[in-house]
Design a protein that fits this description.
The chain has helices spanning 5-15, 17-32, 39-64, 72-88, 93-117, 122-141, 150-157, 165-183, 185-195, 197-202, 207-232, 244-254, 266-286, 294-321, and strands at 146-147, 159-160, 163-164, 235-236, 324-326, 338-340. The protein has 342 residues and is mainly alpha-helical. It is globular.
């Protein structure tokens, strides 16, 4: 951006707010708890952040279009409940995983259909789907916990070239999402729709189709997150996936994704946000902090990140509205400076 050095410096620092917060958290916990610096603890943080991170990747796609999906936690619950019933009934693990993916895609397709074809606000549609999914999941599980076979746990405990499978799945989802958003026309269309829906429509972008696919992607990511969660704790309780949508939104926002659409990135943004949330919980646990304080501290960090994002956007708007001096070259050789509004 043009402007004085202090303005450019301020915007740059604001853009790196999440990275700065993450560095501060690492330094503070590293100094207060030597066990926090153990490399194995770092790997544990990545494993624990995998499910939330995958969920947040799908949420990033939705937020980039200026939408929201409050049903992802319920999607996790229904997908896990159906696959759990299937496996306990004698079904195979691969087929159970496929069922979870189909459930996620189905819920996402329904959300996208109501939003794009009926013109209902995403908040209302996904809120309704959230309650429907929770109710359906409770009906399937009969409000009782289902302990799943060891095959789920073995999936989570497995390693490939020394890397835990949950981390590999997380990395795979991030790589695919990053490539889609940064290297494909569809990714550019997502940003265009989020920046200005009407302008994108006038430019010939099939905005309804883009939004529909985005919500399907979010649903599939929710199902994959459910797979990873089950691989770490192979049991489907009545509270499985409850309120996970808010962690996903928080991770995306911490990573710099705008709630107003059109700005954000999966890597390093959303990944950093998900790992930051898990790092906070891990560090507080090592320090034996009262568990009731975890949400308060995490919410404080999220509030700071959102506040900085809001301040940055506000400053950019004000700076862009200021009158700027137009050079002679810009006004066709006029030797006298002119001022205009941007």
């Amino acid at each position: 951006m043009r402007g004085p050095l202090w303005q450019r410096t301020t915007v740059t620092l604001m853009n790196q707010a999440s990275l700065i917060l993450f560095a501060v958290v690492l330094v503070v916990f590293g100094l207060l708890a030597p066990a926090f610096r153990d490399p194995q603890n770092g790997l544990n943080i990545l494993i624990q952040a995998s499910s939330t991170g995958i969920l947040a990747v799908g949420m990033t796609f939705v937020l980039l279009t200026a939408g929201v999906d409050l049903s992802v936690g319920a999607i996790m619950f229904v997908a896990a409940a159906l696959s759990g019933k299937f496996v306990l009934g004698g079904g195979s693990l691969p087929m159970a995983l496929l069922i979870m993916l189909l459930v996620g895609a189905g819920f996402g397709a329904v959300n996208g259909l109501f939003i794009t074809r009926l013109g209902i606000m995403a908040f209302v549609v996904t809120l309704a789907t959230r309650y429907f999914g929770r109710g359906l999941g409770l009906q399937i599980t009969e409000t009782r916990a289902m302990n799943l076979p060891d095959s789920f746990y073995e999936l989570g405990a497995a390693r490939v070239v020394g890397v835990p499978v949950p981390v590999l799945i997380f990395a795979g989802v991030v790589v695919v999402a990053h490539v889609v958003l940064t290297r494909t026309p569809f990714g550019r269309q997502i940003y265009a729709v989020g920046a200005d829906l009407e302008a994108a429509r006038k430019a010939g972008i099939r905005t309804r189709w883009v939004l529909w696919v985005v919500y399907m992607i979010c649903g599939v990511c929710a199902a994959v997150a459910g797979v990873v969660a089950l691989s770490q704790a192979p049991a489907v309780s009545p509270g499985f996936g409850n309120n996970r949508e808010f962690l996903a939104i928080a991770a995306a926002v911490l990573g710099g994704t705008s709630l107003f659409g059109g700005r954000g990135a999966v890597f390093p943004g959303t990944v950093l946000g998900a790992v930051l949330i898990q790092t906070l919980e891990n560090g507080l646990n090592i320090l034996n902090v009262n568990p009731y304080l975890y949400p308060l501290i995490t919410s404080g960090v999220i509030f700071v990140a959102v506040l900085l994002d809001s301040l940055r956007n506000g400053w950019l708007v004000r700076w862009n509205r200021r009158k700027i001096f137009v050079t002679p070259d810009e006004v066709g050789g006029n030797s006298q400076g002119l001022k205009r509004e941007t």
